């Protein structure tokens, strides 16, 4: 071909490669953030928070979260009616997490997919806005209960300090256990 055509094709290939590398970097970054969120969640749910408080605050800060803001723990447990429909056991948790990110859209709202059947959220919480929280929970239940053999949400007690997270998490877990 003509040198001009070869040059155009080379530019297109270079742009395509750059787009692929950018996508791959973004995907790696999302996977890293998911791993760090799981690790942070694990640290917050351990009994010895005070032993690692500085490390936990640093990890949260790197992810962009201020743990000193008032929050509440939501713990979701779900099971799809069928796995064969989508061929992917994580399809439901991804869809629920996406819906949650729209409902709890503040940059400080922490949402973490624990596995294919459980999600933990730690959105900002103001005692004055309890009705708004209830409305969001109802929206989640209405959106997904038809696709699930069960879809339960446990709500923990409001927390004002990160050391209270484990207690709120345990409260939400206890509520889930009573629903099963």
Brief overview:
The protein has 180 residues and is an alpha+beta fold. 53% of the residues lie in helices and 14% in strands. The mean pLDDT is 86.
Radius of gyration: 21 Å
* Biggest sheet, spatial arrangement of strands: 2-3-1-4
How would you sum up the major sheet? 4 strands, antiparallel
Class computed from helices, strands and strand pairing: alpha+beta
Give unreliable regions as ranges: none
Query: Hey, roughly how much beta strand do the residues contain?
Result: 5-15%
Query: Helical percent range?
Result: 40-55%
Shape summary:
globular
Q: Number of helix segments?
A: 5
Number of strands: 4
Q: What's the end-to-end separation, in Å? A: 69 Å
List the quaternary state of the chains: single chain
Question: What do the pLDDT scores average to?
Answer: 86
List the helices and strands in order: HHEHEEHEH
Question: How does this model look, in words?
Answer:
- With about 180 residues, the chain is of the alpha+beta class.
- It has helices at about 5-45, 55-65, 90-105, 130-145, 165-180, and strands spanning about 75-80, 110-115, 120, 150-155.
- Strands 2-3-1-4 form a 4-stranded antiparallel β-sheet.
- A hairpin with a 2-residue loop joins strand 2 (about 110-115) and strand 3 (about 120).
- It is globular and about 70 Å long.
Write the layout of secondary structure elements.
Elements: H1 3-44, H2 53-63, E1 74-80, H3 91-103, E2 110-115, E3 118-122, H4 130-144, E4 148-155, H5 165-179
Antiparallel strand pairs: 1-3, 1-4, 2-3
Helix pairs in contact: 1-2
Write out key terms for the chains shown:
single chain; 180 residues; alpha+beta
